[in-house]
Amino acid sequence: MAVLLVWCVLAMLVVGCVLWTLRTSTIAHEEERNAQVDPFRVLELERRLAVAAERIRRVDADPTMFARAHHLRAALWAYDALLREACEIAGAGQPDVERHAVEVTALKRALSAQDLPEEVSALSTQSLGDPDARFQRELELGARGWSW
User: Fold this and answer.
1) Where on the tree of life does the source sit, at the highest rank (predicted)?
2) pLDDT at 127 exceeding the cut of 90
3) 87 lies in the same domain as 109
């Protein structure tokens, strides 16, 4: 009986050591990745996000602006592109690729009725009209300490 108890204690020690090693290596890997991110690049992105968000608010608040929808669409595309770049730097998860493909296909069909180029780039159509994905990215960045 005592031998069984000794083996159980040794097994628990080995499992504990393995778990501790895995955890410390994961933490070290995260710290290494975070150390590679240039803090000035983060600050620059935060500043650009603030400028883009202010532009969206300004366009949205001015009902007399000419080509308001065009300006709002351009500002949202710029804001979404900045959010994607910030999420890449922060290591936040990206939206589902299949869902994005369906959105791009639907947008291309909607735009085909207009006099626009046939090929619409995936970058320019990502998250267009999807406030949920935009909100999710904003939450992810906020949870990682970003503010704008």
Assistant:
1) Bacteria
2) no
3) yes
